[in-house]
Write a structure and sequence with these properties.
Helix content: under 10%
Distance between the termini: 83 Å
Number of helices: 3
Length: 622
Amino acid sequence: QEGPHTIVVSFIGYNSQRYEINLTENVRLNFNLEAGLNLEEAVVTGEEFNKIEDQVQMSKVEIPIDQIKQLPAIGGEVDILKVLQLMPGVQSGNEGSSGLYVRGGSPDQNLMLLDGVPLYNVSHLFGFFSVFNADAIRNVTLTKGGFPARFGGRLSSILEVHMKDGHMRDFHVDGTVSVIASKLTCNGPLVRDKASFMFSFRRTYLDLLINPLIALGSSGDVNTTPSYFFYDFNGKLNWKLGEKDRLYFSAFHSNDDFGLKIDDNFGQDRVESDLGFDWGNQIQALRWNHEWGPRLFSNTSLTHSRYTFNSGFDVRTFETQDTTVISALFNTHINDYSAKLDFDFAPNSRNMIKFGASYIYHTFNPGATAIELDFGQLNPLDTITGASSLNSHEAFLYIEDEMEVSERLKMNFGLHGSCLNVQDTSYFSLQPRLALSYKLPGNVALKLSYAEMAQFVNLLTNEGLGFPTDLWVPSTGQVGPQTSKQIAAGVAKTFGDIEVSLEGYYKSMEGLLSYKEGATFMFDMDDDWGSKVTQGIGNSYGGEILIQKKKGHTTGWLGYTLSWSNRQFDEINSGNWYPFTYDRRHDFSFVLNHDLTEEWSVSLVQVYGTGRALTLSESTFS
């Protein structure tokens, strides 16, 4: 539309900019946002736009990275997931762990996306830290409900984490040394204004701190040598191919390695024991961004994601003349290759249409065990047993439209269609999505959302254990997909720099997966994992209050959650309903950051939560 216009450019954690332009023809404008800097041509007007009551999306959490870095952290290591656990509707599971339990859901029901690529395990140090290095992260968004149609594949939440792109003009180097780890982050131009890079590396040195303490407790005949470390690497390249094309390449690799060696000497005999486990993630993503015209944009992505877990032990006994060996190694992994095409189309100023498609090729190895038994016999046992690899094909299509119906009413509606083919079995799912926002007098927004979701990958886990021994398995002809329906309603209003929102929700779930009572899978000779699980139903409901201040010298939030979460399986608890393991009735958090000067700040975090549900035994028999 011709004539004078005001353009406001904003992004959370960056200074906003306002431009006055007079349109007489189609024009192209490029904007460079700077964190914490006042640009000469910009006017900071953050409180005047993008208010919570102006957004159609509800049940969405955004926290500036700079604010996350100011919060107290265990061992000095900033953890994005621990900060998200302080938001209403998000539970932490075990104390100190980095898992997310969102609105009564399980950890596998959270879609963790790093630059658009799924991560299947996001924990370091047995869950005490997450794999997300805050120095390499640009922004974090958690969506708990009212999911737009472009998202799918999980029931409870979508966590979007984006790496920094790298500066096109200046070099920046940051280094951090904490009690348990060190980090180095570099970014800058490869070709000025054309190409940039970013890489960040982090490694712990817990083994150097713990080993001397362990050595003090070792006796002369027993020598114990533990080892543990983790590391992760983030890298990104950004090429500006032309005025209408950009190419991005992202890479991530993480690994945790724990081991324990014990040498036991008694007389002329000796026993060497070596046990441990390791787990890790790796992803690669290539994305091409193209502008087809002033109203149509596309992103084409090719990605790879892999998660592996290995565990084992090796015991060797050296007697006077003989040597015996008892050894076992357990391995599980999931491997994904995917292609995705997304379009953004703006037919006019009141509509933004998004549509696209995706295909994923999954390879699952639910668990293989290599066993060696050598007691000096003629034919020692050396074999591999366990579940065989399983492949599946997953695809989805989506279309959504965010529409400004009138000055007071906005809506986002769409449809997500997904399918899975595995073991000559196919599943199809059509998932409608709807979000409404109606603005009352006084700029108070009433919001309503409805979303149906389907999930074709499952996590087999023994609830209550915080180890990464959990197994990822697909839906099969024997095990159906998980599905959910969630409705949420709320009100939102901004008072100056303070956002206030109140939401209530109800979610029903079907096809939930759990081990049968007494069942396990690790180091099991039986490869039929489907016979060890059972499927059931669940529900969760509650209310959430969030009062948040994102800008200024004093920032933080106050959150409160009142919630219920229940499960029912025919083969667990005699078929009766019971509270989910992490059903927590009340959860309260208070977070405060205050900048004293440009160099000094103080932070405070206060958390209160009721305990985990526990059923006490009423009688015993023998």
